[in-house]
Write a structure and sequence with these properties.
single chain; 138 residues; mainly alpha; 0% strand; globular
């Protein structure tokens, strides 16, 4: 029986809140992740990959850290404030990136570059990649 199925079965018995179900699913889906050598960086990346999509992601990651017994990382992560992604779609449209899927792919590619820089690249740094990436994004 899959762990996700068990979360849903538990929900049927206990009538969990929607957030409790999402937390349970998040933990069972990420508890065995390879957190690389630096658990803190793993947590930063998970949070920044879902920024804006999941409003309670930081709390879920904190609960995951408790589950995997990473208390030191937990305190460091709780104190960390994620930086705002420095590029927006309007600037990319002004640079000739077309609306729609290509714009989304460009933003995702730039977000990866930003993540690789450990969130230090500025808007100017990231916009330098736009011309190079235009040819590779289909």
């Amino acid at each position: 029986m899959s762990c996700s199925f068990q979360i849903y079965a538990m929900n049927d018995r206990l009538k969990l809140s929607r957030e409790e179900v999402r937390l349970g699913l998040f933990i069972v889906n990420h508890r065995k992740d390879d957190m690389r050598k630096d658990v803190f960086e793993y947590c930063q990346d998970v949070l920044c990959d879902t920024a804006g999509k999941e409003p309670r992601m930081k709390e879920r990651i904190c609960e995951l850290l408790i589950y995997v017994d990473q208390r030191e990382t937990l305190e460091k992560f709780r104190a960390w404030t994620p930086p705002k992604f420095p590029v927006n779609g309007i600037k990319l449209l002004e640079m000739g990136v077309p609306k729609g899927p290509k714009l989304a792919k460009m933003i995702n590619a730039l977000r990866e570059k930003w993540k690789d820089s450990r969130y230090t690249y500025t808007e100017e740094d990231l916009l330098e990649f736009v011309e190079k990436l235009k040819d590779t994004i289909k």
